[in-house]
Amino acid sequence: MISVQNVSMRFGSKILFEDVTTTFSPGRRYGLTGPNGAGKSTFMKLLAGDQPPQKGTVVRPDKLGVLRQDQFAYDQYTVTDTVIMGNGRLWSALQEREALYEKSADLTDAEGMRLGELEGIVGHEDGYEAEANAAVLLQGLDIPNDLHRRKMAELQGGQKVRVLLAQALFGQPAALLLDEPTNHLDLDSIHWLRDFMTRYDGTLVVVSHDRHFLNAVCTHIADIDYETIITYTGGYDDMVLAKTQVRARVEADNAQREKKIEQLQDFIARFSAGTRASQVMSRKKEVERLQTAELARSNIRRPFIKFQMNRPSGRVVLEFDGVTKTHGGASAVNGFSAIVNRGEKIVLAGRNGVGKTTLLRALLSDAPGLPPSPGDIDAGTVRWGHEVSVGYFPQDSTGLIQRGMTAVEWLHQWDPDAHRQDVHGLLGQMLFSGEEGLKPTDALSGGETARLLFCRIMLQKPNVLVFDEPTNHLDLESINALNIALQNFEGTVLLVTHDEDVMDEVGTRVWSFAHGAITDFKGGYEEFEAQSA
Q1: Which of 89, 133, 398, 523 is the most buried (most CB within 10 A)?
Q2: Lowest mean pLDDT among 97-101, 378-382, 505-509
Q3: Percent of the chain surpassing pLDDT 90
Q4: Alpha helix (H) ranges present in 228-374?
């Protein structure tokens, strides 16, 4: 169990949460929600003991599993050792035991007794099965056996995140704190993690921007809003419904009280100078009693995303034949052919590293309106259709937004004829309101960068959207807005994402990458999954 008593945190004048008292109980799985900047990561640091609260106390179990975000902290260690380090007591005992064994010929009596104590600790913490248990976790998270003895420095970023996730899960901790565990995971790994969590019987607190994952895993939602944390029973969708009802009920009650206050004040104004002094005094006391308490302001900010087209494309948007591209010496895409018609919304599905991004880049190697990149395709022909215009959101946006400008200056350059007021209005839709539109591009966060790129696409009004992992760095409100915008878009979409709700609700066709081949399925993702089961 994790107990929080009267905890407060603020940054300058901004209150994240005030006098929060709550308990996270064993056997329950809590999703910690709130928009970007609400204080989710700060609260997770308080729970983990990495940061003290400005006020109040946090009581936590001795054995706590925490997903660490520093991918480089363990570069000198092997993958297996990094996982075992998730059980600090066991790792310390193993290190001390190894040091004593190295000088076994010269051990003192005290050191010999200490060695016996360490063997007891290792046995109690399942240390003799530690490597085997670590291997099971790593295999479930798609870290192959041949990497288990490698140094962490040799792994790619996504692989490191999965190893750190295995570290948090190792040693059967009494409580798990997982901040964005699904980042950089493909769907198979997300499903493995989901199944693991639903079997976990300790206390779980997880931050995720994946609505489908939260609905599948969580028994409760702890929502940061109105400067406090309110716990709701059920998954994310249950919380949204309950929260809407609670807020509507409170506001309706306040409206009734305000109406009553107006009536009382009217009576007071009419009779304060007359003979009904006692009744006036009674009404004044009732006004004081009914005075509406000011509600803390909600921190939820919902962007408005709407993709429109300057003009529709021809009926055949894209036709390609025999597209081939090798990556790292291996064939990532091998002779794939397809025809894409106007209005189709194609989801590219498959594990990380199977060639989804490689295929998109090959198709875009000579796309209208984008810089040519002939090195992204080795063989095959790609023909884009009549009047096609492409809006591209790449997986890696590094360097796409020029530094040394403000957000509004950077956006305005993509349509110099647009009125400055219209550009500011578009930025306001995407939560760059007022002076936030003057924010330097050098200071943009990951979420702000994504929202600014969406602004550019909305300004340019293409009829084909090619989006590669667009939900990375977005909070749940923004992901939901993007989901709705893609559903309502009348043009054509090619989409890579691991968000199952977006895949289910947007896709009308699936390109599935598996076993070195690409399957072209004419139907939605849910239908594809049912057929593949």
Answers
A1: 133
A2: 97-101
A3: 55
A4: 236-271, 277-290, 356-363
CA distances from 450 to 393, 457, 511 (A): 9, 11, 25
Backbone dihedral angles phi then psi of residue 220, each to the nearest 5 degrees: -145, 155
Closest C-alpha to 515, from 347, 330, 350 = 350
- Distance, in Å, from the CA atom of 186 to the CA atom of 141, rounded to the nearest integer, reads 9
How high is the mean pLDDT of the chain?
88
Could you report how far apart the first and last alpha carbons of the chain are, in Å?
A: 38
Contact 330, 490 (CB under 8 A): no
Q: What was the pLDDT predicted at 296? A: 56
Which among 381, 323, 367 is positioned nearest to 463, based on CA atoms?
A: 367
Q: What angle (nearest 5°) sits at the alpha carbon of residue 128, between those of residues 178 and 85?
A: 30
Instruction: Quote the DSSP letter at residue 297.
Output: P
- 133-148 exposure pattern, b = at least 16 Cβ within 10 A, e = fewer: bbbebbebbbbeeebb
- pLDDT-derived band at 290, boundaries 50, 70, 90: low
